[in-house]
């Protein structure tokens, strides 16, 4: 089973251009059926705080695109979308559609990026979620969540086999991105896939470094700073053997988790 990260440039607040670009990249990507494909945080617009403009409308522009493309390619497709809550704030979400075009997971970012103003415009999620991808348990997270290991520990305590991080992580702290992804894999004894964007927005520059990390913390795929797809085969039998030989997770304290 393959997990695939689609690292791409994002046109600022231009949904149509971004949907066209992602569609072309994935349709030309020779992606095996049943794969899990990850797109960056806010892949249709960039890291914008203009929720009135970028949020999905009743026409479901972003989510409808994910639903249709997942069915067309026969893959599980995760993308970062923005919706509005009932009080006028945004919800920065990671949504997953199955090869049948059915929503299988919806996670809301638990730690909006307060230093960049996100917390003033977006409501936080309340708990991690876990979904099943062809027998692999997956916990999705978003960007700034990565700096709060107690969030991932809730999912690690449930023995998830893959954690995913979709992001708009800027150049200035890119070394932190790589190091923290490796740390999450090591401490939770699981695979970790982090997909980041490249390019620039009005405020920041992004150099990618989407990576896939083994449960031992080894980088097994690295996108560098180019627009591309990276992929890795997940060996769940080897993961089970590793956890059996070194059952570090058995010594965790109890963590509460609401699954969805």
Explain the layout of strands and helices.
Layout lengths: L1 E6 L7 H13 L8 E3 L12 H4 L6 H13 L2 E9 L5 E8 L5 E6 L9 H4 L9 E3 L2 E7 L6 H8 L5 E5 L7 H15 L2 E5 L2 E3 L4 E3 L3 E3 L5 E4 L5 E6 L2 H10 L15
Parallel strand pairs: 1-2, 2-3, 7-8, 8-9
Antiparallel strand pairs: 1-14, 3-4, 4-5, 6-7, 9-12, 10-11, 12-13
Helix pairs in contact: 1-3
Notes on the protein architecture:
The chain is an alpha/beta fold and 260 residues long. It has a single domain (2-251), classed as Nitrilase/N-carbamoyl-D-aminoacid amidohydrolase, CATH 3.60.110. 26% of the residues lie in helices and 27% in strands. The protein contains seven helices and 14 strands. It has helices at residues 15-27, 51-54, 61-73, 118-121, 149-156, 174-188, 236-245, and strands at 2-7, 36-38, 76-84, 90-97, 103-108, 131-133, 136-142, 162-166, 191-195, 198-200, 205-207, 211-213, 219-222, 228-233. The protein has a six-stranded mixed β-sheet. The protein has a six-stranded mixed β-sheet with strand order 6-7-8-9-12-13, covered by helices on one side. Strands 10-11 form a two-stranded antiparallel ribbon. Helix 1 (15-27) runs parallel beside helix 3 (61-73). The relative contact order is 0.16. Residues 256-260 have low confidence and may be disordered.
């Amino acid at each position: 089973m393959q997990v695939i990260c689609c690292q791409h440039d994002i046109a600022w607040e231009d949904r149509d251009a971004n949907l066209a670009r992602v569609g072309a990249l994935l349709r030309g990507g020779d992606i095996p059926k049943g794969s899990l494909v990850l797109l960056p945080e806010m892949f249709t617009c960039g890291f914008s705080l203009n929720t009135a403009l970028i949020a999905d409308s009743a026409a479901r522009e972003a989510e409808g695109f994910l639903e249709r493309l997942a069915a067309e390619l026969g893959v599980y497709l995760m993308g970062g979308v923005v919706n509005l809550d009932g009080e006028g704030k945004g919800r920065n979400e990671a949504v997953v559609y199955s090869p049948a075009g059915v929503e299988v997971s919806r996670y809301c970012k638990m730690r909006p990026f307060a230093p960049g103003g996100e917390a003033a415009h977006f409501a936080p999620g309340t708990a991690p979620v876990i979904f099943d991808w062809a027998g692999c348990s997956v916990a999705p997270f978003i960007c700034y969540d990565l700096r709060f290991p107690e969030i991932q520990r809730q999912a690690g305590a449930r023995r998830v086999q893959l954690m995913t991080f979709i992001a708009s992580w800027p150049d200035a702290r890119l070394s932190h991105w790589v190091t923290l992804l490796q740390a999450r894999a090591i401490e939770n004894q699981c695979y970790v896939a982090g997909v980041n964007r490249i390019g620039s927005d009005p405020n920041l520059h992004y150099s990618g470094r989407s990576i896939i990390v083994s449960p031992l913390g080894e980088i097994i795929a690295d996108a560098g700073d180019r627009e591309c797809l990276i992929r890795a085969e997940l060996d769940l039998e080897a993961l089970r053997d590793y956890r059996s030989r070194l059952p570090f997770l058995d010594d965790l304290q109890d963590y509460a988790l609401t699954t969805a």
